[in-house]
């Protein structure tokens, strides 16, 4: 298990750039704070805040304690000296790691309860086979940051993947400078997730200069570290020429690698390629195989694609309305608007053996309408209109019309008499 030692762990917590600049020893700040915080001396705490002003967590703790001493008096002004631009970690700085010995017993991590709790809140899917990850959209940034920060302030010997997960939570929470610092340190210890986070930061260019080539280099490092998400991002780069010359063969190679490791978005991409005959020969059997594997991993996009294939018999594939409904329901449970809309249509019209159920359509179209789906807004409005709820109907017709629905515009004119 790769772990960060006492000094490195404290430096990460500081998040002040001291890891590379070497100007302020934030590891020392942690040790000093342990004595100063219980001293009862406002002068000592103020002096600490001035000396360690470049260590944000500890200087903030000091200011908060000073405010308590002063019973709500204005907090100590931050003391910050001009400093040179911090040198950022490069892919070439990463240490080469020895290949594992095939004769060694299988590695099994031994996470503490605190580490496991942090990983459950902030880790990414595919980050490790030893714990589940959380989809980006589902990360509760405030909760994840609180859980991981509490651990890191207490534990002086944490796993690099825990630090990487904290970096991911910080990025989701918009704490980009801290996300950069944490991710650099975890990347140096071999975390593929941390490398992938660094790539994303260079893609966005908010706190480091935007650089597609640097981002691609970090995605490749993440892929080399075994992160399936990194493999997918490398494939995307090769497919679209982002940070590297386009190369479809290499793109397919990396999509297939990520799919092999169970990465849903890569399975979906390959499924769509084979369905449409894009970059590969059209093969509906292979398309459905990739999409079903992705859906089995909980991928909502895959479930919607499968629903459409089985409902309409795309490209001559055998129709199967029961499977279509099954996959639509899987996606609808995750509030996918296309699945909600298509289920609503099936139940409203009673097509292909699906029982006619206006009330079910009302619920399904209503939910999709609330989520902003244009066609569902118009259809839900029409159901309200038929039920005599004119104001409600107008509300949803107008929402659809604002998105460019010409039929909704016509229905509004009919009601208002214009």
Automatic annotation (TrEMBL):
Keywords associated with the record: Hydrolase, Signal
Signal peptide bounds: 1-21
Family annotation (Pfam families): Sel1
GO MF terms, alphabetically ordered: beta-lactamase activity
Enzyme Commission number: 3.5.2.6
InterPro entries per UniProt: Sel1-like, Sel1_AlgK, TPR-like_helical_dom_sf
Protein name per its UniProtKB record: Putative beta-lactamase HcpC
Originating organism: Ruegeria arenilitoris
Gene: hcpC
């Amino acid at each position: 298990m790769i772990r960060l030692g006492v000094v490195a762990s404290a430096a990460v917590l500081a998040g002040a750039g001291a890891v590379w600049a070497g100007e302020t020893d934030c590891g020392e700040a942690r040790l000093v704070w342990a004595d100063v915080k219980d001293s009862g001396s406002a002068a000592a705490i103020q002096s600490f805040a001035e000396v360690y002003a470049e260590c944000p967590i500890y200087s903030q703790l000091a200011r908060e304690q000073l405010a308590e001493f002063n019973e709500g008096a204005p907090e100590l002004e931050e003391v910050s000296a001009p400093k040179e631009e911090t040198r950022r970690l490069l892919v070439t700085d990463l240490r080469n790691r020895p290949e594992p010995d095939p004769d060694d017993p299988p590695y099994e991590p031994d996470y503490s309860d605190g580490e496991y709790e942090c990983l459950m809140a902030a880790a990414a899917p595919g980050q490790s086979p030893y714990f589940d990850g959380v989809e980006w959209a589902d990360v509760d940034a405030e909760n994840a940051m609180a859980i991981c920060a509490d651990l890191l302030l207490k534990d002086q010997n944490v796993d690099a993947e825990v630090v990487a997960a904290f970096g991911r939570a910080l990025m989701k929470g918009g704490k980009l400078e801290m996300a950069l610092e944490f991710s650099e340190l975890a990347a140096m210890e071999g975390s593929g997730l941390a490398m992938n986070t660094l790539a994303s930061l260079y893609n966005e260019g908010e706190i480091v200069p935007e650089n597609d080539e640097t981002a691609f280099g970090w995605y490749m490092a993440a892929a080399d570290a075994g992160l399936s998400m990194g493999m997918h991002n490398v494939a995307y780069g090769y497919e679209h020429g982002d940070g590297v010359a386009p190369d479809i063969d290499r793109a397919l190679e990396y999509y297939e690698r990520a799919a092999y490791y169970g990465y849903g978005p890569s399975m979906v991409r390959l499924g769509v390629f084979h369905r449409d005959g894009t970059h590969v020969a059209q093969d509906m059997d292979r398309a459905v195989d990739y999409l079903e594997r992705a859906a089995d991993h909980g991928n909502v996009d895959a479930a919607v694609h499968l629903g459409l294939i089985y409902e309409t018999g795309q490209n001559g594939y055998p129709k199967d309305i029961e499977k279509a409904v099954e996959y639509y329901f899987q996606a609808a449970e995750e509030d996918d608007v296309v699945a909600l809309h298509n289920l609503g249509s099936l139940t409203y019209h009673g097509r292909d053996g699906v029982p006619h159920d206006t009330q079910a359509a009302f619920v399904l179209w209503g939910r999709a309408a609330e989520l902003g789906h244009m066609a569902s807004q118009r259809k839900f409005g029409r159901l309200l209109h038929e039920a005599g709820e004119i104001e409600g109907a107008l509300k949803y017709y107008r929402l659809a019309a604002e998105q460019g629905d010409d039929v909704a515009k016509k229905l509004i004119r009919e009601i208002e008499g214009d």
